[in-house]
Amino acid sequence: MSTNHGTEEKSNSAWRLLINFLLYVSPVALLTTIFPIVTPTINRYNLDGVPLIQVILAASITVPWLSQAACLPLYRAIQMEHKKIADAREGLRIHAETLEHQLKRTEARAVRARMSEPQFQDITDLTAFTRNWLYLFFMTMPLVLLFAIPVALVLHWSPTAFGAFFVLGVLNIAFAQLLVIPNLAKNRIIWFIAWLGYSLALLCYPVIWFLPPLVGSLILLVSLGKDLVHLLHFARIPIKDIALDALRGFFTGSIIWADKYMLFLVTGGEINVVAIYLSLIPCVIAYNYFFVVEADRVNASIQHLWTIFDRLPYKGVQEESSKALRTSNRAIRNSLLIYIASAIVTGILMFIFLPQSYPLALSGLVVAFLFVAVALLIYQIEYMTMYVTVQLFSAAHLVLLFISFMILPNETGYLPIIVGEAVLAFACYRVYRQAWAAPEYSLFWRRALAW
Q1: pLDDT of res. 197
Q2: Both 262 and 339 in a single domain?
Q3: At 105, phi and psi to the nearest 5?
Q4: Is residue 9 in some structural domain?
Q5: Is residue 4 classed exposed, middle or buried when 0-12, 13-18 and 19+ CB atoms within 10 A define those classes?
Q6: What is the Cα–Cα distance from 297 to 309, expressed in whole angstroms?
Q7: Do 47 and 64 reside in the same domain of the chain?
């Protein structure tokens, strides 16, 4: 009976993971289906002499990279909000104990009574997010200019087109940041509904270019329910911390997304959109698979290690560390296998239906595999708090892209990128193996230095 129950639980868990994964990658299916339908309509419109399709394409290339820089500060803000409440409660407790020692028992009871007040109660991650979102949204808005100005200068856009791109970038930042809500709520249905609203707005009103992210954002805000009132809290974190996290997001986001942005610039906006983006589908599937299916397992193994340092002898800690290493290796391996399987299917379909674009598609599939490998490896290296190393790898990636596209300012620039990225992937793998060879040692020193 217990065996059947255990088998049933595993089966249900597998189904839940599959459904969550399908919901997570649903935007790929929705946008891949809808965008070719609306493109002919969008092609008929201009913004002060600049094709509307070019502005929308520039935004779609920019936003994924921009979003990682804009979203990373949110997670620090959530942690700081929890810490703020914990520190306030601890301050009250210490104050009450001090009064007790001074034999001021009435005052001590009054202080302890305050600990039941709402501002000293634990809150959910979702509430912590809502308290900080508006402030962080306004603080990260200027990031759009970092991406918009080069595009406007290179493509000689009019002020109207530049303004539209900026507004589109800002609205998409809001949408990307609010997509953290279903992640915190662990509710992929909300994720799917938000993207469905985004896609239907694009399908029904393709020339109202600002509508899709606006509709998606409104759906996510409504999903907050009673937490919506916390938007008025307008909590703040130091600008220095926002800048540091945004910089980290900029570097790590560049691994998968920077090449599209640079290619768009060096070709003057004339890129083979279909080939580039179809070759990106396996990358998106594998990356999302990692975060939906594998990342929680790796997180759990690392969190478990943190809890056993004081309870187990060193040999026991080593055994648990070996389990964590196997979990990490398996996560990377499975994600790359998912990529390979997806790439084979995508490659066959593109060979059949887009034979004229197949050489570019093939190079896109190869280079995207290397991008995913590097991205997953540096994500695991970050666990060992090697943040400077990760940023150096990301900077090397950006330099490689810049030099390659300066020498070969078209799709052939991917050839030297493939070679250079293979070297970078090997270097990341070596550092990863070294960092995870003894995770208990790396994590112990993290704690020791924190003391």
Answers
A1: 97
A2: no
A3: -70, -35
A4: no
A5: exposed
A6: 19
A7: yes
Contact yes or no for 171/55 (Cβ under 8 A)? no
Q: Is the domain of 341 the same as that of 226? A: no
> Read out DSSP for 137-185?
HHHHTTHHHHHHHHHHHHHT--HHHHHHHHHHHHHHHHHHHHTHHHHHH
Q: What is the pLDDT of residue 2?
A: 54
CA distance 293 to 383: 18
Q: Provide block-wise average pLDDT over 10 residues at a time, the chain (451 residues).
A: 58 77 88 90 92 92 94 94 91 89 86 86 92 95 94 92 96 96 91 97 96 97 92 88 95 94 91 83 91 87 72 66 87 96 93 86 93 95 87 97 95 95 97 82 53 44
Closest CA to 245 of 140, 328, 329, 168: 140
Q: In this structure, what token pair is assigned to residue 422?
A: 């293979």
Whether residues 237 and 155 share a domain: the answer is: yes
Tokens of 14: 């597998």
Residue 450 is predicted with a pLDDT of 44
Burial class (CB in 10 A: 0-12, 13-18, 19+), 217: buried
Clarify whether residues 41 and 125 are in a common domain: yes
Element (H, E) at 50: strand 50-51
Structural domain span for residue 298: 272-451
> Within 13 A of 305's CA, how many CA atoms are on the CB side?
29
pLDDT of residue 444: 57
Taking the chain, what is the end-to-end CA distance rounded to the nearest angstrom? Answer: 50
Question: Does a structural domain hold residue 230?
Answer: yes
What pLDDT sits at residue 62? Answer: 93
Cα atoms in the 13 Å half-sphere on the side-chain side of 255:
30
Dihedral sign of CA atoms 150, 151, 157, 163 in order: negative
1 in a structural domain: no
Are 231 and 107 in the same domain? yes
Residue 414 maps to a domain: yes
Residue 385: predicted pLDDT: 79
The answer to whether residues 257 and 309 belong to one domain is no
Structural domain ending residue among the three candidates 223, 254, 270: 270
pTM attached to this predicted model: 0.89
Contacts 24+ apart (CB under 8 A), 199-204: 199/27, 199/30, 199/31, 199/34, 202/31, 202/34, 202/35, 202/38, 203/34, 203/37, 203/38
**Domain match, 129 and 76 both:** yes
Cβ 166 vs Cβ 144: under 8 Å: yes
Domain boundary among 222, 239, 270: 270
For 290-438, where are the alpha helices, taking DSSP H only?
295-308, 314-353, 358-383, 387-407, 414-436
Number of domains in the chain: 2
